[in-house]
Structure prediction request, 349 residues.
Amino acid sequence: MFIDKNPTPGKLSLLCASSTGLILLLMGLIMGLKTIQLAWLLLITTPATYILTRYLTEKFLYRKIKLIYKLIYQTKASPQEEFFHTHILPKPTLEQVQVDVEQWASQQSDQLEILRRNEKFRKEFLMNLSHELKTPIFAIQGYIHTLLDGAIEDQQVNREFLKNAAKNVDRLCRLIDDVDEISRLESGEIQFNKEAFVIQDLIKDVFDLLSLKAAQKNIGFDFKKGCETPIMVYADKERIREVLINLIDNSIKYGKQGGYTLASVYNTDEKHVLIEISDNGIGIAEEHLPRVFERFYRTDKARSRDAGGTGLGLAIVKHIIENHGQSIHVRSKPDIGSTFGFTLELFSE
Ligand SMILES: Nc1ncnc2c1ncn2[C@@H]1O[C@H](COP(=O)(O)OP(=O)(O)OP(=O)(O)O)[C@@H](O)[C@H]1O
Ligand SMILES: [Mg+2]
Prediction:
């Protein structure tokens, strides 16, 4: 009991009192005190030592411990809480204090790590954003100044320059819209309104919406064989429409002339549905695959910009799917094609 790894003020005081008692007993024996004298001596000093040590340890030790707790939890207790903590709750053992402090230290270092990562993320985002803004703004500036410097009178170029300036204004608006959407998704500001709907019907809607764009590249849309049986999912229809527009739009933008876009829908288990959008387009090299969902990441910046892309499409898609508590993945091979697959909740009545 005496050599305790987990001392409490009670145990410490008992240790002091019994050691003092033992020393006094030895000294009394050496000095030849009578038994009755010895008994009285022990009867008075041992409890007195116990009470005094206990009082002092509680007063000084726990005052320091309380200070540590106040510091690490950064709380201010009300008088009632203070009374409860001081008189009713069991006092923490020193080992418990050590565990609590270590836990606090590790929480602090985790939080610091998150803050550092967020800071890096924020810096990168700002750098990328200003870079993305610069390109269209400088182009607009160039066209407008050239027009003002006299090109406006030149019938051969004036309309062309204005058209190019307008194209860059549109690009700027798309960029702002996407950045706005991504930040609202991240801040949790966007409410998800889930409903039951047939996923194939939504895919057909998006095929119709993008059919003109696909026709320009002679790209055909279809469902994979065996995937036509209607499957009901439970998700935010408008957000999933946005996901499908992004993925199918990519399959056209990065698809080959005369190629195809295939949609497949699988009932993977009683809870999930897997939706895949595949193309036989340019594909993505292996080194780019883990990064395509990052904001502003593009495998080929020039090609993506020419196609009017902001590089935020897949980042938005990933946010939407993850906000549904689901996941998205990609498989791809250069010159063979790409498949983007995501899961959704199966609707069950
Ligand atoms: N189906 C695909 N085939 C080949 N590469 C793709 C495909 N989908 C996406 N990528 C690559 O991933 C990058 C990121 O795609 P993302 O949709 O985020 O941006 P974007 O299409 O360039 O622009 P945005 O979608 O914002 O208009 C693209 O620039 C492209 O390099
Ligand atoms: Mg895209």
